[in-house]
């Protein structure tokens, strides 16, 4: 189609030539070709402007647009056919002094002349036009990327705007959710609203979350961010890396079981909880979500759980018992982390009281631990064969390493005896 | 048979390899350290005697934070989650006891014994076997449950003699059949190559060297004793004793230094860090090992005094009279030791002089503090009378007027629990007008009698922002009127709603009609209070 339009363009550029074709042909000796009927070269190509022509190609019906046609990869895009073309340069490679070349070059007056044709010109033009049609996705650097590509959830928005001259230094905002809501209005009918949920924090115990609604996504994000900045909460972080104790928390149908972890464990949690933890400054945590995974409920449940934590001193006071910490890396040395003002004796403790720490802080909730089944291949007959076959090699790697430490290469006691026979090549 | 042959050839090959490295001589030329081993007299009877063991354990100065320090995680990717328990006092004590035994296990000292002797016993000679084979045959009893040192391992030589194996072969075969965790069949390069060993010494990785040597060698091996000897001497030269304190290697090191009569640098370090008691223990250790000090009985007597005392992990700031007496005795004894038996007399004497000066300051301070607990002020007939300060044993402080040794008249009292009273006293009891401030800032202003709130007063609930005016009887408020203070809105926990103004008609009248009110001396309480508070 592009070539057709090009032809049309040539025609449009030189209509005179076409119109005066007849008189020129009169001069020809062959008079048999004379046609008496008037030539009328008018069709929709030269009747309509380019804009309307393109619209006829690219437009999608109203019903189709509602279904989402004419979007994404298969979409036809408008191409600028003038791109890459210059006045004075065309199919026939002519030199026009004053138009496509200077009139005087050096001392010489340039003359109008035909240069040898450039066979690649058309190909270049077509390539240039094709490059305009390709659909390109926006790419982000891995650091800026969110949970999924360029989609906003998981992406950073920077600190909230200053409130009354107070700047939020060291704060970082993360988008947790951005979605469009449709609402009905009396006058306008169905309208689209955007809703955003973000969390902001300084990574040192201060954090807050906010919800914003607006007609535009950016406005919703801005509102949410600034609201989050105004609703900051402070959380104590145990040893600057984790929570004080395991806890169970719920909001609506969302249930979260949070487990405290030792240093170096990392954040093995839902991605939204991970962002919250990073905003607060929690580094090691495990959390299991049960029930509904409605994101807003998830966020609220987690914040409530964090706020309802009790410090070790409080726990000791509640129980009126010493709270003692045993760490594997310290050979289980009993570290008293909190002592109450008065300690109960063994006789004062009722029989049915929960003394197990985990049970007490989890409020008698128990995490469901599903039975682990062996991988499918372990039940198949070939697995046994494999085990039998590779049993004899099971220690080889260690031996190779030891030999390399010893001799600098893998060799056996026989290699001294038979130096020509090399068993295997070193990597 | 063929299998045995292969084994034999194999082991032979390893032996020849091993024997080459065995001749390598470890020496630290740069520092001119010459290793010395226990090859003359057997140190074991002395090392294992209970008296010396107690001294060595005490000199280790076990600090639990270092004994139970975080060790490398045993090839686990992530540290395990800590366990928490609610414990009563008794359970906590049981756990602490367990921790003590655990600490004993962690601090168990590697034994110090004499160098082993080569085994030479021919079991039989069979001339018929001469020339049967040109290889040596090894026979190992691999019965389960036999200790490695008692296992029968013999060899049949090509000339037909059957004899016990030498030590190296025994160790190797034991390791092949019953491998000990961490021990390598071939000597680690750390010990076989002097460069690597010296690198560790320069990096002060003493504990690592000693731990590794314990695993790799037996305590009666020459190589073990040489390695430990070099390490101990290196520590001694650089006075890095603190790196080994609270570890199981400190005892053997002190024993080594004492055995070789070179513990004076350690003595100097002890005096310099002002632990004279341990210095006495060290001298007692020398006496127990060599019995070469002039007044041996004094040491024994003092050691029996020192041992029941708790270990001093930090320098004490306040000393009791008993401590002072004991430390003085220790200092005198150390002084004698330095003059008679020390080889670093001048340095140690200087250090001791420094210690004495420091100690005198601490003594003055603690005695001065004790004196300050007593009364400072005006006296009449041997008893405080007039204005004066008094520091009580329990931490209370009083400043005010006295009469016949009792608080009497206007005075202020700062209690140890953080509360404060200012007002009038009568024979050490609160009587008259006074103000009492609690720890949380709430305060009572009003009349007192018999050390209790009695009479008209007002109580400020500053955390909620209310004022309670009324009558008290023996610390109990019997009738009062609550009203808001102006600052209610700015309190920590302001009450939700303000108290409405004067809903009860004639409230003042009701108060005034009550008999408690009538009992009170009529007067302008506001004015009196103002004067009382202004005096402060």
From TrEMBL, chain A:
It comes from the Eukaryota. Its main location: mitochondrion. One of its GO terms (biological process) is translation. SUPFAM superfamilies: dsRNA-binding domain-like, Ribosomal protein S5 domain 2-like. One of its GO terms (cellular component) is mitochondrial small ribosomal subunit. Residues 189-235 form the S5 DRBM domain. The keyword Ribosomal protein applies. One of its GO terms (molecular function) is RNA binding. Keywords: Mitochondrion, Ribonucleoprotein, Ribosomal protein. InterPro entries: Ribosomal_Su5_D2-typ_SF, Ribosomal_uS5, Ribosomal_uS5_C, Ribosomal_uS5_N, Ribosomal_uS5_N_CS, Ribosomal_uS5m_N, Ribsml_uS5_D2-typ_fold_subgr. It is found in: Mitochondrion. Belongs to the universal ribosomal protein uS5 family. Component of the mitochondrial ribosome small subunit (28S) which comprises a 12S rRNA and about 30 distinct proteins. This is Small ribosomal subunit protein uS5m. It comes from Pieris brassicae (White butterfly).
From TrEMBL, chain B:
Keywords: Repeat. GO terms for molecular function: structural constituent of ribosome. Coiled coil: none annotated. Gene3D superfamilies: Histone H3 K4-specific methyltransferase SET7/9 N-terminal domain. One of its GO terms (cellular component) is mitochondrial small ribosomal subunit. This is MORN repeat-containing protein 3. It comes from Pieris brassicae.
């Amino acid at each position: 189609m592009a070539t057709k339009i090009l032809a049309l363009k040539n025609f449009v550029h030189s209509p005179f030539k076409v119109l005066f074709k007849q008189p020129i042909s009169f001069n020809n000796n062959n008079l048999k070709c004379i046609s008496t009927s008037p030539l009328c070269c008018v069709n929709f190509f030269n009747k309509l402007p380019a804009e309307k022509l393109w619209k006829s190609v690219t437009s999608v019906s109203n019903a189709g647009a509602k279904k989402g046609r004419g979007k994404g990869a298969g979409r036809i895009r408008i191409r600028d056919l003038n791109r890459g073309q210059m006045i004075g340069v065309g199919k026939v490679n002519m030199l026009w002094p004053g138009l496509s070349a200077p009139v005087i070059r050096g001392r010489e007056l340039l003359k109008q002349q035909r240069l040898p044709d450039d066979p690649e010109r058309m190909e270049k033009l077509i390539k240039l036009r094709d490059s305009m049609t390709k659909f390109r996705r926006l790419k982000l650097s891995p650091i800026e990327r969110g949970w999924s590509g360029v989609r906003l959830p998981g992406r950073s928005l920077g600190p909230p705007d200053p409130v009354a001259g107070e700047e939020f230094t060291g704060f970082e905002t993360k988008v947790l959710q951005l979605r469009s809501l449709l609402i009905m209005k009396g006058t306008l009918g169905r309208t689209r609203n955007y809703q955003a949920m973000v969390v902001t924090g300084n990574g040192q115990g201060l954090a807050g979350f906010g919800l914003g609604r607006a007609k535009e996504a950016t406005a919703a994000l801005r509102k949410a961010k600034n609201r989050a900045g105004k609703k900051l909460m402070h959380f104590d972080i145990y040893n600057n890396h984790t929570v004080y104790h395991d806890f169970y928390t719920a909001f609506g149908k969302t249930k979260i079981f949070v487990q405290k972890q030792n240093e170096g464990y990392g954040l093995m949690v839902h991605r939204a909880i991970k962002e919250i933890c990073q905003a607060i400054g929690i580094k090691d945590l495990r959390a299991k979500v049960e029930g509904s995974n409605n994101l807003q409920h998830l966020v609220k449940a987690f914040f409530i759980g964090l706020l309802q934590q009790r410090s070790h001193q409080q726990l000791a006071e509640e129980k009126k018992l010493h709270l003692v910490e045993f760490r594997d890396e310290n050979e289980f040395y009993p570290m008293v982390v909190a002592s109450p003002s008065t300690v109960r004796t063994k006789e004062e403790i009722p029989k049915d009281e929960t003394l197990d720490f985990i049970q007490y802080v989890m409020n008698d909730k128990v995490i469901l631990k599903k039975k682990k089944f062996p991988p499918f291949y372990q039940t198949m007959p070939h697995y046994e064969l494999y085990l039998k076959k590779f049993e004899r090699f099971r220690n080889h790697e260690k031996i190779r390493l030891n030999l390399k430490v010893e001799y600098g290469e893998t060799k056996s006691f026989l290699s001294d005896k038979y130096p020509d026979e090399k068993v295997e090549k070193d990597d | 048979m063929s299998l045995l042959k292969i084994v034999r050839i194999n082991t032979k090959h390893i032996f020849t390899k091993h024997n080459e490295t065995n001749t390598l001589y470890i020496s630290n030329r740069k520092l001119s350290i010459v290793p010395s081993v226990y090859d003359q007299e057997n140190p074991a009877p002395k090392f294992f005697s209970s008296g010396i063991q107690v001294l060595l354990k005490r000199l280790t100065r076990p600090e639990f934070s270092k004994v139970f320090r975080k060790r490398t995680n045993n090839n686990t990717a992530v540290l395990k989650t800590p366990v928490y328990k609610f414990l009563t006092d008794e359970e906590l004590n049981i756990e602490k006891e367990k921790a003590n035994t655990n600490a004993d296990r962690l601090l168990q000292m590697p034994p110090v014994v004499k160098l082993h002797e080569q085994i030479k016993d021919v079991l039989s000679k069979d001339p018929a076997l001469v020339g049967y084979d040109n290889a040596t045959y090894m026979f190992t009893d691999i019965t389960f449950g036999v200790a490695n040192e008692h296992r029968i391992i013999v060899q049949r030589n090509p000339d037909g003699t059957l004899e016990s194996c030498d030590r190296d072969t025994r160790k190797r075969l034991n390791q092949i059949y019953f491998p000990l965790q961490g021990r390598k069949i071939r000597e680690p390069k750390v010990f076989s190559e002097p460069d690597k060993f010296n690198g560790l010494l320069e990096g002060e990785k003493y504990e690592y060297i000693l731990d590794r040597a314990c695993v790799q060698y037996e305590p009666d091996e020459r190589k073990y004793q040489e390695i430990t000897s070099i390490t101990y001497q290196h520590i001694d030269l650089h006075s890095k004793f603190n790196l080994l304190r609270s570890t199981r290697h400190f005892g053997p090191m002190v024993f080594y230094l004492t055995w070789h009569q070179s513990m004076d640098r350690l003595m100097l370090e002890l005096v310099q860090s002002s632990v004279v008691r341990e210095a006495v223990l060290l001298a007692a250790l020398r006496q127990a090992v060599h019995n070469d000090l002039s007044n041996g009985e004094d040491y024994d007597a003092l050691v029996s005094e020192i041992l029941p005392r708790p270990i001093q992990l930090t320098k004490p700031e306040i000393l009791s009279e008993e401590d002072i007496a004991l430390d003085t005795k220790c200092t005198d004894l150390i002084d004698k030791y330095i003059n008679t038996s020390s080889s670093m007399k001048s340095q140690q004497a200087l250090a001791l002089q420094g210690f004495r000066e420091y100690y005198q300051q601490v003594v003055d301070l603690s005695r001065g503090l004790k004196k300050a607990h007593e009364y400072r002020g005006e006296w009449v007939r041997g008893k405080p009378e007039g204005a004066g300060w008094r520091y009580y044993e329990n931490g209370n402080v009083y400043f005010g007027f006295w009469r016949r040794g009792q608080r009497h008249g206007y005075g202020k009292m700062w209690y140890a629990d953080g509360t404060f009273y200012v007002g009038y006293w009568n024979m050490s009891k609160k009587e008259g007008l006074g103000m009492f401030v609690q720890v949380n800032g709430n305060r009572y202003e009003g009349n007192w009698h018999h050390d209790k709130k009695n009479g008209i007063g007002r109580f400020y609930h500053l955390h909620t922002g209310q004022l309670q005016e009324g009558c008290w009887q023996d610390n109990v408020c019997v009738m009062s009127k609550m009203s808001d203070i102006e600052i209610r809105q700015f309190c920590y926990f302001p009450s939700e709603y303000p108290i409405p103004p004067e809903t009860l008609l004639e409230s003042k009248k009701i108060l005034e009609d009550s008999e408690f009110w009538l009992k009170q001396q009529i007067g302008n309480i506001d004015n009196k209070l103002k004067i009382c508070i202004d005096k402060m």
